[in-house]
Amino acid sequence: MELSAEEIRVLGCLLEKAATTPDNYPLSTNALTNACNQKSSRNPVVDYGERTVTETMLLLRPAGLARTVTGGGRVEKHRHTLDEAWGLTEAQLAVLAVLMLRGPNSSGELKTRTERYVGFASPADVETVLYGLAERAEPLVANLGRASGQSQDRWTHLLGAEQSDTGAPSPVAQAPRPEVAVPPAAVQPPAAAVQPLAAPSEPSQVLEARVEALERRLARLEADLGLD
After folding, report:
1. Which domains does the chain have, with CATH numbers?
2. Predicted local confidence at residue 202, as pLDDT
3. ω before 44 within 30° of 0 (cis)?
4. Rounded distance, CA 192 to CA 57, Å?
5. Pick the residue with more confidence: 81 or 220?
6. What value does the mean pLDDT take over residues 7-18?
7. Could you give the CA distance from residue 179 to residue 67 in angstroms, rounded to a whole number?
C-alpha cells in the first residue's frame, strides 16, 4: 500500500470525524479541509487549500477508498470506504486513524487516543488489533520496536512514507510478538516469534508490498491519463 501524504491525511480525517462527530458526517470540502488543517491531534500540522483536498479525493475515489455524495443544498460531501475496501473492523479503523493523523504510537498511547472512537479495555487489547493488522497478507502496520528510554514498542502504519515524531523518515524493524493473554476469538501469537532485524532496513515482505502498491498506483494513473 502506497498513499501520498495528502491521501493519508484526508483518509485519516474522514476516519476520525466518522467516529467522533457522526452527526456532521460525511464532510463537506470546507469541513474536510478544516479537519486536515486542525492544529491539535495532528502530526505534522499542515496547511491545505480546498483545491488540494479536492484533487486528493479525485485520486481516492477511483481507488475505492472514498466516495463523494451530494448532500442537502447540492453540497458535495465526502466519506471514506476503508471498511468496505479493506474489510476492517471499527477497532482497526480507530487504530489506523490515530497512526495516520499522529504518527508512531505505543499501544498505551493508542488506547488513550482512541477513547473517542472505540473503548479498549487495556493496551493488550490494542496490541491484539495491531498484530492483526500487521499479519495481513498486505500488512497495514509495523512494529518499530522500543526507542531508548521508552517502556513500550511503538507502531506505525505502512500506507505511505513513514515519518517519525520529528518528520524525518523512520526505519521499520519487525520486533518479536510478545506472549500476552488474549481472548480465544482474538488473533493468537505465532508459534515461533519473529526475531528483530539486525539492520535498520525494512523487512523484505514490507518492501515487496510497497513495490507492488507502487506498480498498481502507476498503472492506475497511466490508465486515467490514457497512456499504454
Report:
1. 5-84 (1.10.10.10), 89-213 (1.10.10.10)
2. 46
3. yes
4. 42
5. 81
6. 98
7. 40
CA distances from 75 to 27, 43, 70 (A): 10, 29, 6
Angle at 29 between CA 24 and CA 35, to 5 degrees: 65
The mean of the pLDDT values for the chain is: 82
- Provide the grid cell at 224: 486515467
Whether 175 contacts 152, CB under 8 Å? no
Residue by residue, what is the 3-state secondary structure of 108-123?
HHHHHHCCCCCCCCCH
* Alpha-carbon distances, residue 186 vs 8, 132, 180, 223 (angstroms): 27, 8, 11, 40
DSSP class per residue in 185-226: TSPPPPSSPPPPPSSSSPPHHHHHHHHHHHHHHHHHHHHHHT
d(CA 34, CA 48): 8
